[in-house]
Amino acid sequence: MTSSTGRELVLPDGFLMGAATSAHQVEGNNVSSDWWALENRAGSFVVEPSGDAADSYHRWPEDMDLLRRLGFNSYRFSIEWARIEPEPGRVSRAAVEHYRAMVRGAIERGLTPVVTLHHFTTPRWFAERGGWAAPDSAELFAAYVRTTLDILRAGVRYVATINEPNMVALMTAVHRLVVEHGWDGVIGTGDTGAAAGGLGAVEPAQDVTEALIRAHRAATTVLKSADLGLQVGWTVANQVYQAEPGAERVAAAYARPREDVFLEAARDDDWIGVQAYTRHRIGPGGPLPVTEGAETTLTGWEFYPEALGEAVRHTARVVGPDVPIIVTENGIATGDDERRITYTEHALASLADAMRDGIDVRGYLHWSALDNYEWGTYRPTFGLIAVDPHTFARNPKESARWLGAMARAGRIPPARTRASAGAPGAR
């Protein structure tokens, strides 16, 4: 399959081409967070603790140097709330200065920082007092965001308040089901194994959905009131629900609580982040498994790069034409770097088609810059750059050089290969 036009797209001036990480997944030793507590709890479902991760807390200058040398002009990274405020109301000035140095370091290297303020992890104390379900969660988050202004004023323009709030609300619902029924009860609710966090019939917790929207708006007020010229948005995990014949209403019913309410909450924002990896087919009875024989990735998701263009189009329909889009995550878990190139080639071709149709897209940030900790295991390798787990040596893959050259050229060429090339199965 090739792009529908077969023509290259010249990227607009200022288009962000880079890669992304999150603090907990690459920094290592985030000992004050809820996830660290979960990873190290006796009897936890977590297969592997994060440990030192990729040691990016110390090696971030090397990571940024690599990204710039490869040709990228942007780097998305997150600030770790648990480092900034390890205890309620106690701010670590050393952590604030650490992230200020990261912002300055990115700008000095010609990398536009896209900074995320919450990427799944929270301080342990926040989780222990009820997390997002606590009545004052939005106020506590806004207070933390106010502290981050000392970091952001070092030169940040793009800020994401919360990463994938729909997944945060969904996993809260899953946690509640686990507490009530155990893991078997959760699997029995309709999980097909096909969803990127979809979990079948489980719906995001409504109270947490509402709390996250309140927190986003409270944080946005803090950020905009600082008068720093910040462009504020949040990022959504786009599920790309595809209705089988006769299942259109069912698909719409799945999309509404799991995605669209979070997109609608961004209609007054400066931008919206699209994060897409695969599709989810919906039949009259709900989610369908991946088609037998289809190629899947190391996460078990269907190899379906066109999900990116479809997610961008759906997002634009929901938020409207006045909210620019930044692709803040898109990538593939694979040990075969040729498949990573093929996947990304076709994902970008679908993105280029959407941009030709007039959708305002301002950037593409690949997930991920590094092979990193994927929430319980190091097995799925998403990175453009390999990381030795013992020495932490960085080794850019051919996909990093290929995508970096595209970023340097400022053009998205038509796809050269068929997306279905190669043997099926997890790679």
Radius of gyration: 20 Å
Which class of secondary structure composition applies to the elements? alpha/beta
* CATH H-level superfamily title: Glycosidases
Number of strands: 15
Strand neighbour order, sheet with most strands = 2-3-4-5-6-8-11-12
Main β sheet profile: 8 strands, parallel, barrel
Average predicted local confidence, pLDDT: 93
Low-confidence runs of at least 5 consecutive residues: 187-198, 421-425
- As an assembly, this protein is single chain
- Helical proportion, percent range: 25-40%
Shape: globular
Q: What is the strand content?
A: 5-15%
Q: Regarding CATH, which class?
A: Alpha Beta
Which CATH architecture is right? Alpha-Beta Barrel
If you had to describe this structure to a student in words, what would you say it looks like?
This protein is of the alpha/beta class and 427 residues long. Helix content is 40%, strand content 15%. Strand 9 (280-283) and strand 10 (286-287) form a beta hairpin. The longest helix is centred in the middle third of the chain and has 20 residues, at 206-225. The protein is globular.
